[in-house]
Amino acid sequence: MTRFIVAPQWQGSPSARAMRLIDGAEAIAGDLPRSAVTRVGVPAEAGEAVGTGIRRFSTLSRVRDDIADALDGERDRVIVIGGDCAVAVPAIRHAAAQHPSLAVVWFDAHADSHTVDSSPSGALAGMALRAVSTAGPFVDDPPVPLNRVVLAGARTLDDAEVDHVTGSPLTHLTVDALVDPAALADAVAATGADAVYVHVDLDVLDPASIDGVLEPVPFGLEPAALTAALARLRERMPLVGASVAGFAPSSPDAAVDDLGTILRIVGALA
Q1: For residue range 12-66, what is the model confidence (pLDDT) as tens digits?
Q2: Residue 123, CA atoms < 13 Å, CB-side half-sphere
Q3: What is the pLDDT of residue 73?
Q4: Residue 3's pLDDT band (cuts 50, 70, 90)
Q5: Is 254 left (phi over 0), alpha (psi -120 to 50) or beta?
Q6: What are 72-121's pLDDT values in tens digits?
Q7: Distance in angstroms (rounded) separating the CA atoms of residues 10 and 7
Q8: Could you give the CA distance from residue 37 to residue 251 in angstroms, rounded to a whole number?
Q9: Other CB atoms closer than 10 Å to residue 172's CB: what's the count?
Q10: What does the alpha-carbon distance between residue 249 and residue 240 come to, in Å, rounded to a whole number?
Q11: How far apart (Å, rounded) are the C-alpha atoms in residues 245 and 84?
Q12: What is the secondary structure of 160-226 as a DSSP string?
């Protein structure tokens, strides 16, 4: 059985249009089985950095803890629906506590690998993947080592992120590599993991396939390639948790146009 946690968090995004993420999360939630959905309330206020160097940290840490509480004791597969990418961090911690050899696959047009010191914006979404594997203000005990992290489809990286990605043991699969449906499963198997968590920021898709993202990046992944890679991965290894983030439609009508694609991805994860 798959359950869903809906957390329409926007405070982690650096975008001036970040509040569209609320509408995106709610649009996806509206097409999920109501009995399988748990909602996590997100405060309306932006929040304060409280000396951490992370914008809106006070609100983000509160939502982090509320997601963790919603996951506590959960044994079914859970898909977290954001909101921004930082909603994945407590879900990965939950999955790793149950599966100590967990691998993480992070589909994203961006690397999300900044630290507080390297981030140009101070936005947590740009540090979310780094928080999974490196101690910092948001996570003091990172749950997954870099050699079990697979970054998939990233194609716009800041200089500091290039240094991190190329100089660390994480695996980076390009969009071209992911055309082979087996490439992702092979990369995850090579980490030695026995279970996998998959995060999907919808901006990993090519802009021709989806309109409702805050920062579209050309030359992205086709939806069929993404779902084929997920299907092959699940043949090789248990998928024990997932998250979908980054849906920011400009209007309710625009949301409808994208939901078919998004729900196919959710179905591939569920």
Answers
A1: 999 999 999 999 999 999 999 999 999 999 999 999 999 999 999 999 999 999 9
A2: 16
A3: 86
A4: very high
A5: alpha
A6: 988 889 999 999 999 999 999 999 999 999 999 999 999 999 999 999 99
A7: 9
A8: 23
A9: 18
A10: 28
A11: 5
A12: HHHHHHHHSS-EEE-TTGGGSTHHHHHHHHHTT-SEEEEEEEGGGB-TTT----SS--SS-B-HHHH
CA distances to 150, 174, 189, 201 from 64, in Å: 23, 30, 29, 18
- Let me know if 253 is exposed, middle or buried by CB neighbors in 10 A (0-12, 13-18, 19+): exposed
The candidate with the shortest Cα–Cα distance to 224, out of 175, 169, 170, 270, is 175
CA 24 – CA 13 distance, rounded (Å): 14
User: Which alpha helices (DSSP H) does 53-171 contain, by range?
Assistant: 57-71, 88-98, 128-133, 159-167
CA 39 to chain centroid, in Å, comes to 17
Q: Is 0.85 surpassed by the pTM of this model?
A: yes
